[in-house]
Amino acid sequence: MNFIGIDLGATEIKAGIVSKDGKIIDKTAIHTPIDGAVGAVVDSIDMLTARFLKTDNDTIQSVKGIGIGIPGVCNDEGLVYYAPNLFWNNVPLGDLLRKKTNIPVFIENDATMAVVGEAKCSVAKGISNCVLITLGTGIGSGIIINGDVYKGNHGIGAEIGHMIVGENFYNCNCGNNGCLETFSSATALVKYTEKLLSDSGNSLISEKLLSDSGNSSISRKLPSNSSNSFVSGKLLSDSCSSLISEKIDNDMERLDAKLIFDCAKKGDFVANKAVDRLVKYLAIGIGNIINILDPEMVIIGGGISKAGDYLIDKLKKEVPKNIWLKSMNFTEIVLAGLGNDAGIIGGAMYAESKLSL
Amino acid sequence: MNFIGIDLGATEIKAGIVSKDGKIIDKTAIHTPIDGAVGAVVDSIDMLTARFLKTDNDTIQSVKGIGIGIPGVCNDEGLVYYAPNLFWNNVPLGDLLRKKTNIPVFIENDATMAVVGEAKCSVAKGISNCVLITLGTGIGSGIIINGDVYKGNHGIGAEIGHMIVGENFYNCNCGNNGCLETFSSATALVKYTEKLLSDSGNSLISEKLLSDSGNSSISRKLPSNSSNSFVSGKLLSDSCSSLISEKIDNDMERLDAKLIFDCAKKGDFVANKAVDRLVKYLAIGIGNIINILDPEMVIIGGGISKAGDYLIDKLKKEVPKNIWLKSMNFTEIVLAGLGNDAGIIGGAMYAESKLSL
Questions:
Q1: CB distance from B128 to chain A under 8 Å?
Q2: Which residue has the higher pLDDT, A207 or B41?
Q3: A36 in contact with B at a CB cutoff of 8 Å?
Q4: Is A309 exposed, middle or buried (0-12, 13-18, 19+ CB in 10 A)?
Q5: Buried b / exposed e across A233-266, counting CB within 10 Å, b at 16+?
């Protein structure tokens, strides 16, 4: 008995056929039809599904259901209320797909699919209460409560990325200020690093010199013309952030989260300052989740999670500062286990769980 | 078939005998034994219970269980991990009481008991997903998910008062900075009002004059010696906050949340500034709860809820600003319905629900 899992992203549609115990039998991916038109996406999903159904006669019989993760929110029937990166509002994806196929189709948020995958087949196997946070371009999340997906009364919950955790220098795409996503996503990390590199020259130089020397008198040694942005920018690139500047060859377009983490690991001052800020607010977000939901496990996924134990170790140090009852610091913080296959496996496992109800 | 509900507070133990449908048949209250010794509290609860069992022969037979709400956190067996206002750590209250009585005893957090009461017999009747926030000396909360109490994997969840929502000028009792409790409890309201009255004279006077005149040039008219704290304090009490100062007769000890809300309702500038800050952060907290849990209803209880629709109207205006998907602003925000009896009724209904499992 097999299931098809589909991970519908804004740039790529990944699809796979997965066994009942969560093993990928075959997988593929295509570019998402670029104009985002609903019909073209439906046709692409149908084509991918047909491929798995047609490659092997045994398989045709054995596919019991399809689970599709979407980058947005939807109801149980697969009416997609909102998927900003696909430019979708109120798209009846479930109905459209059901007209194309006779196999049961289940649609859910992509981070929710990922947490189902982790809970059924990976790091959270056997765990009844867990939360997955995917740190990518944005921040997604999925919540499992008492063994079941929890998405709220109107299907718009589990949006931990929009928890307000402070005040920020730019607004979130949702229109609010202070969303976790604007502090701890890959986008946020890049934006803050850019800000540090471009407009904070003087104070950053002082801070760096102080941190290097441990001597507060050294800040007086700064040149008197350091308020000139060119001079301070030059000084900055020379003294504070040679590694980032060198790696991107002063081309901000080349700045990305991986590069910033790599520079932080090598001790770069600016990169560390940016990573520390990401971690500080992420630890507030995780602390809040622990104070509210007290899960057994918090799972970190998405592109930023590729920083690995370097990130997890920082979180394990920082999160306890935000837990209200410090003597009961029991929630495990771990890296997601399924990597790029989380959407495919999670989608398939979601279909499996729905059909076994 | 009846149940006993007990609300164990730091100053008072309230107890009542409650019918299966949530009606109080009889109730009473005694002072909590002042030294907080566990044995004395257990004896008091036993005495209150005995009173209901002995007053009426029919009643003895019909009491099926006792539910006790505690100002702290505990496990399902009634081991109280932590109840700061009772100075309790790891007190086996459940075991101690079970030695005294043959009737089943169930122990839970007091705000959790209150949300059970609201969900079984009051404003949240028939609602499967709701959150109650009690705004008192601190901030408590209770969560119902899919019709059941949710308190997390280790029993320390549902502590919405310790959600970090910003940076504050004083730390929370839990040791952290920025907990919702330090912005939106009665204690927080009083502390912030005291701060406004005592140390913000100059800026507050400018702000008040600007707000009165709508003319930014007016701030230049402030006396040049307004940095003198006596002068500014005098000016403040004359021009900015005559109502609060008058009501408390300049005695800060007399400042309380009710008085501040009353002064705000009458248009007092300082009181409004303090209430607006309480509402701003409470709306962030509620918005976060909606973005994470998307409940059908958020219920506001506790002493501050006596501000009534004045508070609810402000929240209904402010909360939507913090919801990520503004087109789906569906969560109802309502006042708690059970008032001072919430603990008794909730405790009894919790026992009823546990016994009918």
A1: yes
A2: B41
A3: no
A4: exposed
A5: bebbbeebbebbbebbeeeeeebbbebbbbbbee
Cβ(B322)–Cβ(A176) below 8 Å: yes
- pLDDT over 90 (residue A54): no
Q: What HEC string does chain A produce?
A: CEEEEEEECCCEEEEEEEECCCCEEEEEEEECCCCCCHHHHHHHHHHHHHHHHHCCHHHHHHEEEEEEEECCEECCCCEEEEEHHHCEEEEEHHHHHHCCCCCCEEEEEHHHHHHHHHHHHCCCCCCCCEEEEEECCCEEEEEEECCEEECCCCCCCCCHHHCECCCCCCECCCCCECECHHHHCHHHHHHHHHHHHHHCHHHHHHHHHHHHHCCHHHHHHCCCCCCCHHHHHHHHHHHHCHHHHHHHCCCHHHCCHHHHHHHHHCCCHHHHHHHHHHHHHHHHHHHHHHHHHCCCEEEEECHHHHHCHHHHHHHHHHHHHHCCCHHHCCCEEEECCCHHHHHHHHHHHHHHHHHCC
Amino acid at B51: R
| pLDDT at residue A36, as a whole number | 65
CA distance A299 to A335: 6
B294:A154 CB<8 A: yes
> What's the one-letter identity of residue B290?
I
Q: Which helix (H) or strand (E) holds B198?
A: helix B186-199
Residue B142: pLDDT over 50:
yes
Q: Are the CB atoms for A18 and A93 separated by under 8 Å?
A: no
Q: If 0-12 CB within 10 Å is exposed, 13-18 middle and 19+ buried, where does residue B20 land? A: middle
B158, B175, B327 member nearest A292 (Cβ): B158
Look up residue B350 and give its DSSP letter: H
AA identity, residue A332: E
Please count the CA atoms within 13 angstroms of the CA of B335 that sit on its side-chain side.
16
The pLDDT tens digits of the residues spanning A275-307 come to 999 999 999 999 999 999 999 999 999 999 999
* Complex ipTM value: 0.90
Alpha-carbon distance A227 to B210, whole Å? Answer: 33
For chains A and B, what is the number of CB pairs under 8 angstroms? Answer: 145
Q: What is d(CA B136, CA B304) in angstroms, rounded to the nearest whole number? A: 6
State how far residue B294 is from chain A, nearest Cα, in angstroms: 4
